[in-house]
Design a protein that fits this description.
Strands 3-4-2-1-5-6 form a six-stranded parallel β-sheet, sandwiched between helices. It has one domain: Decaprenyl diphosphate synthase-like (Undecaprenyl pyrophosphate synthetase, 3-Layer(aba) Sandwich). By secondary structure, it is an alpha/beta fold. α5 links the parallel β3 and β4. The structure holds 3-methylbut-3-enyl trihydrogen diphosphate (2 copies) and magnesium ion (MG). One 3-methylbut-3-enyl trihydrogen diphosphate binds next to α2.
């Protein structure tokens, strides 16, 4: 009995902050001869399934790329669907987020999103703001260049106001002016669908993150897949420029 319990225990393998570039919804649908939006609907469900699993594993932060600053280049009908889908899914999931103690936050300028989507996001963010479990950090109209520019502008304003000097700028200060201020360093990034690029995602935060590129399309990325990714992470040797402690 005790043995069985041991094998089902969900471990985080030392990951405090995990991130996902959730890619491949369109190709997943195409493989099934279905419209791209069918893939987005399935992909939206996986976000919450994976978040629940990360929460059970006591991972502190899950950052995920839901809509990039470059995704505005897609057909308007697809953009509209993506935000409607997010809205509907969020509305459905607020009770679960509350029950599981998950806190929703966003990174990116959400003021460009449809008003009804903004309202649903703000509602979910406010309602879950006191939750102390997993922080589900959703990138919406997020781009790393935008994030870094925004941070630099805020630092420049503080210099202009004589609050700080240019010489005070260091890694910690820049960290503190990004959306991820106060979160643990990013341990692991997983990009699904076989693409091996960062597509403007968390460039600063990724300096010493372990990277996993899996061919699995996002709608097929189940908690079992997450277990495999975490096991792969656990075999990595993180040296940070130093030597193995052996
Ligand atoms: C990821 O899947 C979802 C978003 C970028 C919003 P894609 O829509 O990029 O799917 P593929 O890459 O075309 O298969
Ligand atoms: C990255 O995927 C953005 C999200 C997953 C939200 P894309 O599908 O937009 O990236 P590219 O265009 O293949 O680089
Ligand atoms: Mg894609």
């Amino acid at each position: 009995m005790a043995k069985r319990k041991q094998t089902t225990e969900l471990l985080n393998y030392g990951v405090k902050h995990i991130a996902f570039i959730m890619d491949g919804n369109g190709r997943w649908a195409k493989k099934r001869m279905r419209p791209r939006n069918f893939g987005h609907a399935e992909g939206a469900k996986r976000i919450f399934e994976i978040a629940l699993d990360c929460n059970k594993r006591k991972i502190e932060v899950m950052s995920c790329y839901a809509f990039s600053t470059e995704n505005w280049n897609r057909p308007q009908s697809e953009i509209d669907y993506l935000f409607k889908q997010l809205e509907v899914e969020l509305k459905k999931k607020i009770p679960t987020l509350m029950k599981e103690n998950i806190k929703l936050v966003t990174m990116g300028d959400i003021t460009r999103l449809p008003l009804s989507t903004q309202e649903e996001i703000n509602k979910a963010v406010n309602e879950t703001s006191a939750n102390s479990g997993l922080i589900l950090n959703m990138g919406l109209n997020y781009g790393s260049y935008d994030e870094i520019i925004r941070g630099f502008k805020n630092i420049a304003k503080r210099i202009e106001a004589n609050e700080i000097k240019s010489d005070d700028i260091d890694v910690k200060m820049i960290d503190n002016h990004l959306y991820t201020a106060g979160y643990p360093p990013l341990d692991l990034l997983i990009r699904t669908s076989g693409e091996m690029r960062l597509s403007n995602f968390m460039l600063w935060q990724l300096a010493y993150t372990e990277l996993i590129f899996t061919p699995v399309y996002w709608p097929d990325y189940t908690p079992e897949q997450l277990e495999l990714s975490l096991q792969e992470f656990s075999k990595r040797k993180r040296r940070y420029g130093g030597l193995d402690n052996e």
